[in-house]
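so im writing up the methods section and need the Lipopolysaccharide biosynthesis protein record in one place, dumping it here so i stop losing it
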Amino acid sequence: MSHEFISLHDVFYFVRQYTVFISAFCVAGLLLSTFYVITSDPIYSARTQILIEPKIPRGLQQQQPAEVNLSLDTAQVESQLAVLRSQKIAMMVIDDLGLMNDPSFRDIHGPGIGTRIRRAWASIVDAASLHDHGGYAALENFPWSDDKQTEVRQPESERERVAVEVFDEGLEVQRVGVSYAIDITFQSLEPALSARIANATADAFVREQVQTTTQAAGEGIVWLEKRMQEVGNQMNEATRIAQEFRAKHDYSIDQNQTPVGGQDGVAGGDRQTTLEQLEVTADTYRKMYESLLAAYTNSVDQQPYLIANARVITSATSPKVESWPRKKLILAFGGLAGLVAGIGFAVARRSLDRNVRSAQQIGRELGLACIGELPHVRFKRGGFGRLDEVLREPQSVFAASLKSAKLSINVARGPSQARIGITSVSPGDGKATVVSNLAALYAVSGIQTLVVNADNNSAVANDLLKTPNFDVFDQESVDAKGHVRKIQLIEETGYYCLKSSESGAGNLIIAKNLENVLKEVGLYYKMTLVDLPPFTSGSDTLSICPMLAGVIVVAQWGVTSMDQLAELVATLRNNNSTVLGVILTKVHSASTRDHRKLAAQAPR
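--- predicted struct ---
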């Protein structure tokens, strides 16, 4: 059966493992968003609405092609939006309201970090009534504060540029759906000012439309007057020439008196001008003049009635509630951003962490079973429990976890295999605690148990075997029965113990002596646990493992390197040793939830 790369259990375990880490990031995100909210200036938005009257040619109005109308409408509305955003409208509003001299008309970027810190500190001072505190007075002169910057008199052009930038920053213009209505929204730090500027922008737009139309009409009238004068002069000249021609009763005329335009008649090859031609020319100029005169009269009559192509349909009012900052939204975003950042950092930390942290990790990378996960025991031996913890607290989570490991050992070793070695990667992994408490469990269950101490730096040797009554295991002796007589009962734990030489564990490595001793003690003890030296003491110390029924490896959760653990397991396998499994010590409490439930349900 194929193994999933990331199972649902792995996800849940990852979340439980880094709950505190992720929660810290969430709290940090909420604190930062709260800091932003309480130190930001409130921004108020006022909205007005205008309606654009579409301009559609009469021919299109009669035919009413929907596609053409829609395209024309879109172009017209977009053009009006561009006009509303133009610098001309901005300067009209700034001049009308005198915004360059209004101190409340400033940018809405928000204060700098120095000002925000001062505001946050001021809020804390107000809440705790610490106005007389020296720190508050010192923070008044905070060097990063931008509230106390001295204003430098700027040139008029620079002031206008800044005012236009502030206006453009606060102005928002957008079309309402596909209609001809346009929303004009202005954001300001003062609610009344935002309404005044929004209304002034709409009025300036309408006024600009009227001014543009009036200017265009005035230019048209001037052009008509000039053109009428030119056509009138041509008409008078043509009429004069026709009348002179008629008065002479002659159908020929001097070439120098040819009418304006140079229209000549051709007859028989000679250039001649007839009376009919002169009268037609004069009549043409007369009709042109009459047409221009009618257009001029119409333009002069309609000029007082010119109106804009837009009108205000909704006026802005002073807002009562600020539009920014949106407190709930910012707090929710801060918490979510902290959550995402926490998960991201946790994933990165987990990816870079090569320490042992889960039973699934051991099974996936080493192909071994994690037969036990022993949790912390607070205030006991650096947070891991005493050498007789299972006897002092038999209903604890620690005892329940070790009992589960004991059951796994019994299943793995079989009925005839009673010699188990226990080793670890490095000192301090909790190997001695596992050896002593596991032996105590076997002893309590009625099984004659012997602990062979082969690690002089172990807590078993340093704490339990300090008494001078203990004889040591001498390498020069070959009498196994003599060694058996040196075994002493540890009354606190109930199991028996054989101590190695003080000169080091090397005395125990002599396979000949140890094999004889193990054969001899096998007649008296059904379970023998050998407290082996750690792997960092040298791989040669593990040469006695092949004569054991199996070896259990102890690894400290979150501290033991997976690479070192894999190296230790590979060394044992290359040495023809049977590895029964791995016991994790000092495991995070979230990994032992099942054992906690069992311990809670156990009778007291």
